[in-house]
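Memo to structure team: turn this sequence into structure tokens by end of day. - J.P.
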Amino acid sequence: MNFDSPPRLAGPHLLNLRGSRPTLMGSRCVQCGELYFPAARGCTRCSSAELEACDLGSEGRLWSWTVQDFLPKPPYDSAETETDFRPYGVGYVELASGLKVECRLTLADPKRLRIGMPMALTLEPYRRPPRGEPTFTFAFAPIEETTA
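Reply from structure team:
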């Protein structure tokens, strides 16, 4: 995924765009090693307030999924209407660390989604204004799809 300029992101604090592929950014407790996404200010495991930013990577396996087939109610703010809404996949991807991340999926086809399939982080347009640049969010795509 190449951009001429940095893309507009719905949650810029969630991603690291340096390098050839985006990665998720979270936090790690310095005391016990617990990981968080999104980044947390305090550890719910050991109660420490000493957390550090950490790169969580860009690949994992699909742990669970469903299809969002109706326009969500506010605060969902994609600017879509009932008429132009397109269903999208939603799931949990388990990263190599074991952390499960709730995310949008690039697929919404139940025939092509399967638990355990390898997934890779990508960016997907989220809000498309009539004029101007779209706003992107992170999503996970099957690895076969990202390498094709």
